[in-house]
Write a structure and sequence with these properties.
The protein is 78% helix and 0% strand. The protein has 13 helices and no strands.
Amino acid sequence: MTINFIFLLILLSALFHATWSAIIKSSSNPLSLMGITSLMEIIIFIPLTFYVPFPTLEIWFFLLATVIIHVLYRLNVIYSYKYGDLSFVYPIARGGSSLLIALFSIIFLSTSINTYGFGGIIIVCLGLFLISFSSKIKFNRAAFFLALSTAVLITLYTLVDGIGVRKAENGFTYIFWLFALNGVPLLIISIFSKKGLRDRNSYTIKSGIAAGFFATSSYALVVWGMQFIEIAYVSSIREISIVIAAIIGLLFLAEKEAKKRIIPSILIVMGISIVYFQL
């Protein structure tokens, strides 16, 4: 498996994730879209689990942990976009998680990230945070702290999944069971909530399927890639999605500040390039 091929797949994952986030942000009922996404995961991945080895007891601990973290993450995303622009919330969440993952990997996982690679990650994070702030608009405290909590949750599930997929005898065992179980809690919530799937006039099946495709494909590529590249590198490379999200915010969501947030994206591209050439 060549590094170039994995790198391109992670970039594709970034495009998918930014698209999914834009769909969730633009929806009047994002919980319903999350519910449809969850249903798609269950329908697609439960049959696939019969073609891979059954998870060991150790792997089940990782799977249960990530399911809990993922449902909290998805609910956090919904509330974050209620309070802030895509081009504001997304950079803080993704940039913060990149920095936290890099620090955690170095301190606790003995990850072999060299000085240039870590410098690239820092540049990526700096660019993302610069995108998030504007001197002409009142600071959005609620959106900021929700985005920070999202960053923590992203860090947690990325590390859990990165370690879990590496410990699994077969990487696809972890990936298939992850997605088969991942959607169950949120599907239940979306079914019983008045603001979820029961509010039939507030969403379309088509938009739910689109959200499901982009969300599932995006993270499946990331988890798969973490088998071959350091977890912190995968997370950092994927953050090109914020540039895409800022462009979507400008062109399709009419976010006035999005244009100013595109300029610091040069830092992100620089940082990702540094990381890439250290692999």
